Amino acid sequence: MTSADADDLVVIENLDFAHGYGAHQVYKGLEMRIPRGKITAVMGPSGIGKTTLLRLIGGQLKPQSGSIKFAGHDIPQLSRSALYEQRKRMSMLFQSGALFTDMTVFDNIAFPIREHSDLPDEIIETIVLMKLEAVGLRGARDLMPGELSGGMARRAALARAIALDPELIMYDEPFAGQDPISMGVIVKLIKSLNNSLGLTSVVVTHDVAEVLTIADKVFIIADKKVVAEGTPEELKASDDDLVQQFLSGDADGPVPFHYKAESFAKDILGEEADADSDAEQRKERDNA
Amino acid sequence: MLDRVAALGKAVLDNIAGAGQAMVMLLRALVGKPQIRKSWPLLMQQMYSVGVLSLVIIIVSGLFIGMVIGLQGYTILVDFGAEQSLGPMVALSLLRELGPVVTALLFAGRAGSALTAEIGLMKATEQLSSLEMMAVDPLRRVISPRFWAGFYSMPILAIIFSAVGIYGGYLVGVRWLGVDEGAFWSVMQSNVEWGQDILNGIIKSLVFAFVVTWIALHKGFHCTPTSVGISRATTSTVVTASLAVLGLDFVLTALMFG
Amino acid sequence: MESRNTQLAVGFFVIFGVLALIFLGLRAADTNVGSSNETYKLYAKFDNIGGLKERSPVKVGGVVVGRVTRITLDGDYYEPLVEMTINKQYDEFSNTSSVSILTSGLLGEQYVGLSPGFIDDTVEMLEDGDYIQDTKSALVLEDLIGQFLFSQGND
């Protein structure tokens, strides 16, 4: 372990990953260092594989090559049982919340504690109520997940994610589909939990404005690798076209508005004429 | 032409890969040291939803099928003056064939489809991924108790089905149509044997339980996690499991009674 | 408390299943000659076994004491050899006993009728694997009709 590793909880080096049998390359030569105890935001256009990144860190997917070190353990190389051992130290907040629909909120949060410890019921109850208090849902303990609003479900899931006091917590699109108020609540929760519990947080999102207010470090992923990294201030000051397009939300730019396609004229008219030049133009733009 | 060959080859390969996937899933779910204290309540929960909740449909269908065999059998046998053979006819057709097979078909429709849909939905709502990230193996936590519950429940259901069916045959044959009660039971007793008939029926039903539950769990666990994917997987569970049961029934019957 | 109800329900479910099995075992099945009971085997050669099948009963005076377990052709002249599995409870048949193939009713199944022979000091008891020498073949309806017509012709 080098000295740099000591400060970085997750170190990703030279990562190649493709879905299926190499059909769809997601990452090529990805490098990333996630600092310990900080909030790291990972941003990028939709469909770029940000969720895939979290699954790679969690060991749910295996990369074709490269290493993912979590606290010094190379996740893809671990045996099944060792991987499960490491997973106890991390947790993940899924986009949908992923609460178990057949249990109450209380049982959902008690679930990981019951699974991984032999604590008596009274202690479990204390812990669960503490976690629920932290997310402000102590009064909702006996509700079923179906009775919660989207924002409350996500907060309940957050309480479950911190139930075992993990070192790393990964948020998959925590702001997607939330109204401004619950969005604000979640932003505040991520910040306060990170500070009070000494967590390392990774937030994957494309809600730029929200995440920039709390992030200590930001990665922007595009075109299968990290294209920009730094503090929010550094990125705002960046003169990179892509960074600026992403931060300000322009429709067209280095990331094209159109998905890769034949030229429109060719598609609807079936004409061969001057289609080539059009397609070439687009290709140039794609490569830019 | 070449495309068709290629498509056929791909379909065959996909099916083989699917079977391999299912095999790996089952092995991972069942191999490993069991934790009785934690898995017992899970098993109970699943036995309840898979077994106990299927009881009503099994009892009602068993009763009616037994009554229908009693009625049909009587009208045929009475022409030959052999209505005393109604007992063995009802008992043997239920114990050897209808008990295990109809139970398996009903089970596939009632419990199998529910298992597939439940697991598919757990997958679609990321509950399975979430379990994995909580360092809880979904194969051990979700698949394994459901598998054992199906495996234990179905033979019990099949036995109940046969018993209720025989009672239904008795109701129609003896109570309604007036076959001699003593003859009904004694001729049945002299024709039905423990090992040959009852035990073989139970063995059949264990095989069906294994296959139907396995198919249902596999289809759910490996479905495409969308609403279309889940509905397809559910349909596919019922179709595949029913065909597998009928096909296997022929093979087993040929081996046991052939 | 909810899981307690679940456990109770499952418990009743299993008990119900066991009761059904007992019902099947006692009410529907023949519990006298089960596969678990101790048995021994006897053999008999016939000229013609008619419609005798494996699993046909072996009866002594109408009481089932065993079943036919195997039918093969044996010896240089391909005589039908019938293997009978007899309940150990009835193991005192002398070697003067005879077997015949009989029919229950006019159209009924064929079965093996075993008539116990006399017992005195000179005869031995049949043991596992022994052959019964005195056998009477099945009556074949066509032969009977043939004989009847033949005897009519002689009158």
TrEMBL record, chain A:
Keywords: ATP-binding, Nucleotide-binding, Transport. PROSITE patterns: ABC_TRANSPORTER_1, ABC_TRANSPORTER_2. SMART domains: AAA (SM00382). The keyword Transport applies. Residues 10-248 form the ABC transporter domain. The keyword Nucleotide-binding applies. Gene3D superfamilies: P-loop containing nucleotide triphosphate hydrolases. PANTHER family: INTERMEMBRANE PHOSPHOLIPID TRANSPORT SYSTEM ATP-BINDING PROTEIN MLAF (PTHR43023:SF6), PROTEIN TRIGALACTOSYLDIACYLGLYCEROL 3, CHLOROPLASTIC (PTHR43023). This is ATP-binding cassette domain-containing protein. It comes from Pseudidiomarina terrestris.
Automatic annotation (TrEMBL), chain B:
It is found in: Cell inner membrane. Belongs to the MlaE permease family. It holds the Pfam family MlaE. Part of the ABC transporter complex MlaFEDB, which is involved in a phospholipid transport pathway that maintains lipid asymmetry in the outer membrane by retrograde trafficking of phospholipids from the outer membrane to the inner membrane. Probably responsible for the translocation of the substrate across the membrane. The chain crosses the membrane at residues 12-31, 52-78, 149-178, 198-217, 238-257. The keyword Isomerase does not apply. GO terms for molecular function: phospholipid transporter activity. It comes from Pseudidiomarina terrestris. It is a multi-pass membrane protein. This is Intermembrane phospholipid transport system permease protein MlaE. The complex is composed of two ATP-binding proteins (MlaF), two transmembrane proteins (MlaE), two cytoplasmic solute-binding proteins (MlaB) and six periplasmic solute-binding proteins (MlaD). It comes from the Bacteria. One of its GO terms (cellular component) is ATP-binding cassette (ABC) transporter complex. Its main location: membrane. The keyword Transit peptide does not apply. Keywords: Cell inner membrane, Cell membrane, Membrane, Transmembrane, Transmembrane helix, Transport.
TrEMBL record, chain C:
InterPro entries: ABC_MlaD (IPR030970), Mce/MlaD (IPR003399), MlaD_Phospholipid_Transporter (IPR052336). Transmembrane segments: none annotated. It holds the Pfam family MlaD. This is Outer membrane lipid asymmetry maintenance protein MlaD. One of its GO terms (molecular function) is phospholipid transporter activity. PANTHER family: INTERMEMBRANE PHOSPHOLIPID TRANSPORT SYSTEM BINDING PROTEIN MLAD, INTERMEMBRANE PHOSPHOLIPID TRANSPORT SYSTEM BINDING PROTEIN MLAD-RELATED. It comes from the Bacteria. The gene is mlaD. Residues 39-117 form the Mce/MlaD domain.
